[in-house]
Amino acid sequence: MTGSSGPHVGIFVFDGAEELDVVGPFEVLAAWAELSPLRPRVTTFSLDGSGVRLAKGLCVVPDRAAPDVGPLHVLVYPGGAGTRPLLADPEHLAWLRGLRADTPLLASVCTGALSFAAAGLLAGRPVTTHHAHVDELAALDPSALVDTEARFVDDGDLVTSAGVSAGIDMALHLVARLDSVDVARAVRHAIQYDPAPPV
């Protein structure tokens, strides 16, 4: 989505990212872009602009390469098995630290928080992640204050969410925070999101 002067949200995509970690927040934020007078812009990007294959095989062609995405107001960083090689990539972690310096709000979904931890971005911060990876996050940064019950944790310039579908809840929270509760409710109505489980 282009041609907007409103808040710019970038969703980082990479091989092995969990599908719903990417498309759940994207659906919420794209609906926000359609409904809000703020005219936010949502951009997907990969490190080099190439297409990526997500964890269960869905292929995504991003809008931009990381060097071309431009200034962001919000970075959304998904989780998934593809975070594992990124955790061990010093160049990637340095890139994340650089984004931290220039981006007012970082948001992770699921095990995306592990990459933030490996980059040293969670020290002493209240955070959450997928319930099965709490110990892994704690090992990466023992000073992080991990909330094992929350769907998402908002700590000002850092918002982390629990596993997979919690990224939708977090994205709706971002809309309410960056715009208004009324607009977030309009987005929720538009996408017919009702979290009461059917079984």
UniProtKB/TrEMBL annotation:
<dbReference type="InterPro" id="IPR052158">
    <property type="entry name" value="INH-QAR"/>
</dbReference>
<protein>
    <submittedName>
        <fullName>DJ-1/PfpI family protein</fullName>
    </submittedName>
</protein>
<dbReference type="Pfam" id="PF01965">
    <property type="entry name" value="DJ-1_PfpI"/>
</dbReference>
<dbReference type="InterPro" id="IPR002818">
    <property type="entry name" value="DJ-1/PfpI"/>
</dbReference>
<feature type="domain" description="DJ-1/PfpI">
    <location>
        <begin position="9"/>
        <end position="176"/>
    </location>
</feature>
<dbReference type="InterPro" id="IPR029062">
    <property type="entry name" value="Class_I_gatase-like"/>
</dbReference>
